[in-house]
Design goal:
Number of strands: 11
Distance between the termini: 25 Å
Largest sheet: 6 strands, parallel
CATH class of the largest domain: Alpha Beta
Low-confidence stretches: none
Order of helices and strands: EHEHEHEHHEHHHEHHEEHHHHHEHHEEHH
Mean pLDDT: 96
Number of domains: 2
CATH topology of the largest domain: Rossmann fold
Helix content: 25-40%
Structural class: alpha/beta
Shape: elongated
Radius of gyration: 25 Å
Oligomer: single chain
Length: 403
């Protein structure tokens, strides 16, 4: 564990993370990175299922876990047993924040909901992440990111016209919901600090609503103009030119030249002064009207040149352009490295693993990784002793399968 060289903005904040898989744990990871003491309560035995997902190291632990479990203290408690729930409740009574992503009503069924803990910890902030929110007709439905991304409207616009809507190869709904949960927790902590009598409150995050929050102007455009935004492939409706173009080396580049002056610079860099000076293309509405012509010109110009040549010419002309990176490209890129986006952490076998830094960057109180995600239950004895359990009581709970 690294020494604390500087303070972090969430130092002194205790978080109990009850969630599993991705949305709740990602919120916990962000809070832990910026200094919160995050105590992850996991089922005895295998712990959070994500420990065994995707590519595993020689110990059978997911490489992903080393990133998602960073800076967290692991305590095991069987929430399906009365004694295990009692352990979790005693930990929650000591906390500032609880993060959970169970189906709505589950914590209440276990006697661990906000009302159950209000007397013992009236200032407790509950971040509750679910598929459809804590109330409403869909609240009790199971809500994985794949389904809620579709329900949110995101999947409808993601893909090419006339084809099956596309899913990015990421659980984006979970991650975006986790970020919303962190935002809500920080707002609730700030409100509590203002001493306005609010105390604890519930941060209600729905996966579909987190994605709905990304839908830009779709609602007023439909309500006011009757327009349903459709999928547009590698373009974006109503903004021209911004697209992906194939080059002679069979690599793609993305060019975003939808600003009026940027478009002029692009056309001049392509040696198309006539298009640059044509009043029909002087503003975005005109370019939208002639999108096929403009995109066709750019596509032909790019196809005659390598991606490196296209990028060099357009960067010299101050036109936004860039390659499409895979993860290997990121790790090799000097800008990524200069910005400190990779942190190398030791593993129990003596090897090191690179994990991504957590954003945003703060100049005065930056976050950091103190340790990579560790083994299930590493901190169980330490933290249960802290809340008053004796060595004998801890051993009995372990023997009974409650921890």
């Amino acid at each position: 564990m690294a020494e604390n060289s500087t303070g972090r903005p969430l130092d002194g904040v205790r978080v109990i993370e009850l969630g599993q898989l991705l949305a709740g744990p990602f919120a916990g990871t962000m809070l832990a990175y910026f200094g919160a003491e995050v105590i992850k309560v996991e089922p005895p035995g295998e712990g959070d299922p994500i420990r065994g997902w995707r590519i595993l190291d020689e110990s059978g632990t997911a490489y992903w876990w080393r990133s998602l479990g960073r800076n967290k203290k692991s305590v095991t408690a069987n929430l399906r047993s009365e004694a295990g729930r009692a352990v979790a409740g005693r930990l929650m009574a000591t906390a500032d924040v609880v993060i959970e992503n169970f189906k709505p009503g589950t914590l209440e069924k276990w006697g661990l909901g906000p009302e159950d803990l209000a007397d013992d910890n009236p200032d407790l902030i509950f971040a509750r992440i679910s598929g459809y929110g804590q109330d409403g007709p869909n609240s009790r439905k199971p809500g994985y990111a794949s389904v809620t991304e579709a329900y949110s409207g995101f999947r409808y616009v993601n893909g090419f016209p006339g084809e099956v809507p596309v899913r990015p190869n990421l659980s984006i709904g979970d991650t975006v919901a986790g970020i919303h949960a962190v935002l809500g927790v920080l707002l609730a902590l700030l409100e509590r600090k203002q001493n306005r009598g609010t105390g604890g409150q519930v941060v209600d995050v729905a996966l579909y609503e987190a994605m709905f929050n990304l839908m830009e102007g779709m609602i007023p455009e439909f309500d006011g103009g009757g327009e349903i935004r459709e999928p547009a492939g590698s373009t974006i409706t109503g903004i021209v030119p911004t697209n992906t173009y194939l080059c002679s080396d069979d690599k793609h580049v993305v060019i975003g030249a939808n600003g009026d002056s940027i478009f002029v610079r692009l056309m001049n860099a392509m040696n198309e002064p006539g298009i640059a000076e044509d009043p029909r293309y002087a503003d975005n509405p005109g370019r939208v009207e002639h999108q096929d012509f403009i995109d066709g010109k750019i596509a032909v110009w790019c196809r005659a040149r390598s991606s490196t040549e296209v990028i060099s010419i357009l960067e010299d002309a101050d036109v936004p352009v860039g390659p499409i990176y895979n993860v290997e490209d990121m790790l090799e890129d000097p800008h990524y490295q200069a910005r400190g986006l990779f942190e190398e952490m030791p593993l129990p076998d003596g090897s090191n693993i690179k994990i991504p830094a957590i954003l945003p960057k703060l100049t005065g109180t930056p976050g950091r990784t103190d340790w990579a995600g560790g083994a299930v239950g590493t901190h169980t004895d330490e933290l249960l002793a802290e809340i008053g359990l004796s060595t004998g009581e801890i051993e009995q709970l372990r023997n009974d399968g409650d921890i």
